[in-house]
Predict the structure.
Amino acid sequence: MKYWIWIALTLLGAPVAQAETAQEKGLAIAVEADRRDKGFGDFTAHMEMILRNRQGEESTRRLRISTLEVKGDGDKGLSIFDEPADVRGTALLTFTHKVGEDDQWLYLPALKRVKRIASSNKSGPFMGSEFAYEDVASQEIEKYNYKFLRDETYEGKPCFVIERYPVDKHSGYTRQQVWIDQAEYRPWKIDFFDRKDSLLKTLVWRGYHQYLGKYWRADEMFMQNHQSGKSTLLKWHDYKFRIGLKDADFNEASLKRAR
Amino acid sequence: MSVLRQCLIVLTRVMAVCAAVSLSFAHAGEWFGFVSLEHQGFFHPPLDPPQQRSYFSLVAQPEYYHRFEGTKDSFTFVPFGRVDQYDPERSHADIRELTWLKVGEGYEWRLGVRKVFWGVTESQHLVDIINQTDLVENIDTEDKLGQPMVNFALLRDWGTLNVFVLPGFRERTFPGVEGRLRTSPRVDVDQANYESARGRRHVDYALRWSKSISGWDIGLSQFYGTSRDPRLLPGVDGNGLPVLIPRYDLIYQTGLDVQFTEGSWLWKLEAIRRRGQGPTYAAATGGFEYTFTGVFGTAMDLGLIAEYLYDDRGAGAPTPFQDDVMTGLRLALNDVQSSEVLIGVVNDRRHAAKFFNLEARRRLGAHYKLSLEVRAFAGAPVTDPTYFWRRDDYLQLELARYF
C-alpha cells in the first residue's frame, strides 16, 4: 500500500494530484509529513505534564523519554517516571508497530517486576492526564485512514486540514481533524471526536524549534478536554538527537536498570 | 524493649553506613525513598494471650542511587527498617539492596545484595526463588530479604541468560508470640537446621533463560541450593514448650513461566518441579486476566482475573493451594491519584476453605500514598495451613510519605 503511494507520487507527480481523491490527498499529506520526520535516528527528552482539573487544581508529573527510530517498523520508546515520588523509577518500554498491536512492558521497581501489559488500553488516560496512550504513542501512517478536507489558515499559517480515522477498533476516537502547515508539514492542532462523534478534546502545539536543521519539535503541547473541563499541558525540555541509542537500550534488561 | 533497642541500634548503624556511602559519592548521587505509618486492626480476639487486637508500626526505606559518570554503571543502596508496637520479630532491619552494576556490550554484572523477581501470575509466585520471603512483613510473600549474589547476565538475540551464584543464605522471618498471622505453636527460628553440613554458608546456584517472541514472554529456570521455604517440624524450646522448627532442605527446582499477551487478554502459566524436599513434586498456577477498558462510560479499566492453583502433593502439601481457584477483579480508576482496587477470592475445590483479599491504594497530593488491605479466612479444615489464621481477619491501613 505504502510503496504504491510512493510510486504514484514520485513517478506521476503533480499532474495526478489534480485528479486524486480527497482520500489520496489526505494520505499524501500524511506520507509527506512522515517522510520529513524520517532519519532522526534517536532522541532523548524530558517531559513535564501539568494536569489541571475543572477547579484549576494542578498536579505535576515528570518523566524522561528515549526514542529509537526503527527502519521498516514503528519506533521503540522508553519512558522513565521521576514524579510523583511514589511512582519514581517506574518505567515503560513500548515497541510501536505499523500494523497490529504495540508491545508494552511495565517495570515496577518496588517488586522488581517486569509486567507485559495489554496494549488494548490505548484509549485510556496516560498517567491520569488528558492524553490517551494513543495520543502520546508514535504516530505511524498505517494507524489511520485519511481524507483531505480543505486548505485553511491557522494562526497566520496556510494549513492543510485533514481528517484521519483510526484503524484500531480499540481507539477511543471515530475521527480526528488535523491542521498541518503547508510550509513544513508540522501538526498545529487536532480536534478529537469521541466514539459518539462529539468533539472531545483539542490538542495544540506551541513553540516549534528545529533540530539538526531538519526535525521540528514543539516546546509545548496543550490538550483541552471540552467535555470534562480538564486540561493537560505537556512541556518538553532538553531535546537531544542522535546520542547513539541502540536496540540494546530498549529491551527488558535496559528496562530493569532504567533509573 | 531490649529488642526495640537492638532494632534502633541496627537502624543507627544502617544510617551511619548510608551517611558514609553518600559522603563518598557526595556530588553525584541522589537520595529518595519513603517512610510510612501502618496500622493493623484484627476483627476477632486473638487465640493466644500475648497477641493483640491492634498494632501500629513505623517503616523507613531510604534509597541511594549513584550513576557513574559517562557509563551505564551504577551503585544502589536500599536499607530498610520497621519498628512494631508489640512484635519484636516484626521489628527488624535489612539491607534490601547494596549493588554495584556494571553494564557492558551485551552483558551485565551485578555484585552485592539484591532482589530478583521471576514470574507472571498474580495469586502466588511459584517460580520466584532467588530471595527469601520476609514473612513478618506480609503474608502475601511479596516482601523479600536482600540476597547476596554475583549475577552475570548475557544478552543475546537468542534470549537473556542469567547466572546467579548465591552465597549467604537468608532464613525466613516468622512472627513472634506477640504477633498475629502466625502458626501455633510459634516458629522457633533460633533452632533452624539445615540439610547441608555448611548450613547457611552453603552456596546456591541459579540459571535462567528468558526471551520475548512477539506476544510470548517465556522464562526457564533452574535452581540448586537451600530451599527458601522450610519445612516446619514439631519440637520444643528451652522451656519445654512446643514450637515449630524450620528445616531447610537442599533442593533442585526447575521452573517455567510463560505469558501470552494478545489484545485485552493476558494468558499466564507458572510451573515448577522440585526435588529434595520430601518426594519430588510438581506445582502449577495458570489462568488469565482480561481487561475491559473505559468501563461504565468512564476512563476506568476493569480487569477480570482467574487462576487455577495446583500442587500434586494434594491434601498433604504444606501449602493451602493444592487444588484452588482464584477469581478476582482489578479496577484502575486512571485518575490523577492513580486509584486502584484489587479484590480476589481463593476457593479450595476440595473443601470449604476460602481466602478473601482486598487491596486498594490512592495517592494523596504529590507525596503521600494511602494503602488499604483487608484479608479474611474462612472454612479452613485443621489440615489447611490457613487454619492457623482462622481468627486473624484483618484490616491494614498504611500512609506513606515519599521523598
In short: The CA atoms of residues 33 and 235 of chain A lie 22 Å apart. Helices of chain A lie at 2-12, 14-19, 22-36, 133-136, 252-256.
